[in-house]
Automatic annotation (TrEMBL):
Pfam families: Coprogen_oxidas
Sequence similarity: Belongs to the aerobic coproporphyrinogen-III oxidase family.
Keyword terms, alphabetized: Oxidoreductase, Porphyrin biosynthesis
Gene3D superfamilies (alphabetical): Coproporphyrinogen III oxidase, aerobic
Phylogenetic lineage: Eukaryota, Fungi, Dikarya, Basidiomycota, Agaricomycotina
Subunit structure: Homodimer.
InterPro entries: Coprogen_oxidase_aer, Coprogen_oxidase_aer_sf, Coprogen_oxidase_CS
Name listed for the protein in its UniProt record: coproporphyrinogen oxidase
One Gene Ontology term of the molecular function aspect: coproporphyrinogen oxidase activity
EC class: oxidoreductase
EC number of the protein: 1.3.3.3
GO biological process terms held by the UniProt record: protoporphyrinogen IX biosynthetic process
Length: 344
């Protein structure tokens, strides 16, 4: 059987291909995603698949009519050496990592995507699935690859609407609940709670969106968020199967929502609110998201790929009146963002 790093690499590459094809099928008249392959000087490669309609310099030009305003589905497969400070930080969750004076080799692969539709009624969506391992020091005289000291999977998917359609929230959560069910009854509730806690903007005292699932450091080691008293993925094969099923859930969870909402009529007021909510999205990604911070601080960081998650346009209004009326559609969304809801 292939190594876990090879299987993880094949998984994320296949996910990228299937998700990009599904998004292109929603709007076959729009330009295809731009596919951009790159190599990393420190070791590794990646493929960025990005959708963006080039802006026009003509103010009189009609606005674009594509379903998507900006979207990206990126894959990276990288390796290199973790500095001692990073190894020390990781030891908090992975006791098997040794105390070292120098760095340790690492391998990481993942698929990360963000979809910003043009229609304010269609929700933004984010997902990523990733694999990380730290290995013994490489012996240049040995024909064998270095042995992994620790490895883990992380990832999830979450929905960020500007306008709340409760049936969409139920559908998104139900698809992920059903996908997680064969792997243990506690998996969806634990990962849903984790998602609500992670995608929270403290300085706004609100969630970024209406949640989904989120997990990190999932391996054969005991996990404080997942009780060993109940059935859950515990072997390497069970964990890989779980991550594979979570990744496969993305298309049936999101594409039907996008297809249904992208054709609804919208108003300039709804567009204004959409841009305000995208401002919140930017605040979370730049100020709070651990993945963004890790990427920006990593040696040889590819900034274009890291900041792909940001919307093409956003808005920050000083003391905005939008959302202040609890009976308005904007106010109803804010109520859910202030108090996360159990959807299924």
């Amino acid at each position: 059987m292939a190594s876990m790093r090879k299987r993880a690499e094949e998984l994320v590459v296949d996910l990228q291909d299937s998700i990009v094809k599904a998004l292109e099928a929603v709007d076959p008249d729009a330009p295809p995603f731009k596919r951009d392959s790159w190599t990393r000087a420190q070791g590794g490669y990646g493929t960025s698949c990005v959708f963006a309609v080039p802006p026009s310099d003509d103010d009189a030009a009609p606005p674009p009519s594509s379903v998507l305003e900006k979207a990206g589905v990126n894959v990276s497969v990288v390796h290199g050496t973790l500095p001692p400070s990073a190894v020390q930080q990781m030891r908090a969750n992975h006791a098997a990592l040794p105390q070292v004076e120098g760095g340790l080799p690492f391998f990481a692969t993942g698929v990360s995507l963000v979809i910003h539709p043009r229609n304010p009624n269609a929700p933004t969506c984010h997902a990523n699935y990733r694999y990380f391992e730290v290995t013994e020091a490489i012996d240049p005289d040995s024909p064998e690859p270095p042995k992994p000291l620790v490895w883990w999977f992380g990832g999830g998917a979450d929905l960020t609407p500007s306008y709340l359609f409760e049936e969409d929230a139920v559908h998104f959560h139900k698809v992920h609940q059903d996908a997680a069910a064969p792997h243990g009854t506690q998996m969806y509730p634990a990962l849903k709670k984790w998602c609500d806690e992670y995608f929270y903007i403290p300085h706004r005292q609100e969630s970024r969106g209406i949640g989904g699932i989120f997990f990190d450091d999932l391996s054969v080691e005991p996990h404080p968020r997942l009780s060993s008293d109940e059935k859950r993925p515990q072997t390497a094969e069970e964990i890989f199967s779980f991550v594979r099923d979570m990744g496969a859930a993305f298309i049936p969870a999101y594409i039907p929502i996008l297809s249904k909402r992208c054709v609804l009529p919208s108003t300039p007021r709804q567009r204004r609110w959409q841009l305000i909510r995208r401002g919140r999205y930017v605040e979370f990604n730049i100020m709070i998201d651990r993945g963004t911070k890790f990427g920006l601080n990593a040696p040889g960081a590819r900034i274009e790929s890291i900041l792909m998650s940001l919307p093409e346009t956003a808005r920050w209004e000083y003391m905005s009146d939008m959302g202040q009326d609890p009976e308005s559609e904007e106010g109803k969304l804010l109520a859910v963002l202030k108090t996360p809801k159990e959807w299924v």
